[in-house]
Design goal:
This is DUF3298 and DUF4163 domain-containing protein. The protein is of the alpha+beta class. 28% of the residues lie in helices and 30% in strands. Strand 1 and strand 2 form a beta hairpin.
Length: 223
Amino acid sequence: MVDEHSNYFLKGDDQLDTTYFRASYPVFDEVKINDLVSSIVHLEGDTSMEEAAHRFISAYNEYVDDNNGKSTATWNRDLQVDVVANTPVYLALRTKQEEYTGGAHGDHVTLYSNFDRQSNRSITIDDIIRKENKGRFTTIVEQCFRKQEGLNKDDSLNGKYFFEEGKFSLADNFTFEKNELLFYYNIYEIKSYAEGSTELRIPYTAIKDLMSEKGLHYINSIN
């Protein structure tokens, strides 16, 4: 865990506040797995978490210095990486980051990362759905989305939703759960900030016939 604070404090009504960078993430015995973790926790290309913390705090300190030692708000970045699943063939991690650097509201992002434990490579949708079934798979996922959103099959996806040209698209952000495939759309991805993020779960019973042997192998390893 890394926890670093600025030496500048901002006085509120009844308390002092300060800018901070906080991060927690798993450490494995296997070097290759730690390299995978490192590749996802350093979202801005830093070589270590200590470097990321120092850069963030330094940016705030420079901002205060440029404003003659004054600031109207503190910053914060909170990064947490959790293990969602870890089997002999499959590893899933969830990265949650909350950040505020001024403005009306902060930024929130949740990213799921899936790895094949035997090849130490990222898993994509194309790895788990057979190529010839991709169209049918997308149709089933869209049907689940429309049902969840209370939409009829012919209702437009323009306006309220941000799908390009009003055409439904799969999120690259997904993970395997025990009984369902989870797609996660972050804030602003398909809806406004006020609408928040969207979790879309697809029962395996609806898509198992469309999945590749690898995809089924990952699911079976969880169960």
